[in-house]
Design goal:
Layout: E1 20-27, E2 37-39, E3 50-57, E4 63-66, E5 70-72, E6 76-77, E7 82-86, H1 94-114, E8 124-125, E9 128-129, E10 139-143, E11 146-147, E12 150-151, E13 154-157, E14 171-179, E15 181-185, E16 188-190, E17 193-200
Length: 201
């Protein structure tokens, strides 16, 4: 039995983007070690105290989705432990195109919640990367969570054991990824897709 079965297999088609909700939270006191947050429904752009925006789907504070089989063009970046997943053939592959639109439309929805449009859209940092002159298909920047000196990511391969540090350029993989919050950082808004499980082909 393939270790691919260890993944969640949650297709993005299960979600209705219109049902994603957002709630805003302020940092009560930035000068204490244990941070506390409070709900604030005021306009995001006018709110200097905003810390993050919680993503909710049916009251669930996390959206998990299993990617199609994707290409990892650059391997693992040790700077911030990120990994690009390419939307290969997204113009001709209907499932990949649908996944690309799903990610893109969530970003548009988050920008609308914040109150951004084409005049100030640069305040939102998209996780979709486009190559110069569209030479290559775009890719999704994902983050591998690393806490308390270890990765919070499981990685599988059928024929031999594999570790996160074995992730190389040009590997093909399917991943469980998730979002939970839009953070405000240096006056910009960012919602990172984080990786929970990886299956390498």
């Amino acid at each position: 039995m393939s270790k691919l079965s260890n993944l969640k297999h949650i297709d993005h088609g299960r979600y209705s983007i219109d049902n994603i909700k957002y709630t805003n939270y302020n940092l009560i006191n930035p000068n204490v070690k244990i941070k506390e947050y409070e709900f604030d429904n005021s306009n995001v752009l006018d709110n200097d105290k905003l810390a993050y925006i919680q993503v909710l789907y049916n009251n669930n504070p996390v959206i998990y989705v299993t990617t199609p089989k994707m290409f990892c063009p650059f391997g693992l970046s040790n700077k911030g432990y990120t990994m690009n997943l390419q939307f290969t053939n997204y113009k001709t592959d209907p499932h990949m195109n649908s996944f690309f639109e799903f990610i893109k439309n969530i970003e548009f929805q988050q920008m609308a919640h914040i109150g951004l449009d084409e005049n100030n859209g640069e305040l939102y940092k998209s996780q979709i990367q486009y190559s110069k002159n569209d030479v290559y298909d775009p890719s999704l920047v994902t983050k591998l969570p690393f806490k308390y000196n270890k990765f919070e990511v499981d990685i599988y391969k059928d024929d031999f054991p594999i570790s996160i540090f074995n992730i190389q350029k040009f590997m093909n993989m399917t991943c469980d990824i998730y979002i939970d919050k839009v953070w405000k950082f240096n006056d910009r808004y960012i919602c990172k897709w984080k990786v929970r499980n990886i299956y390498v082909y």
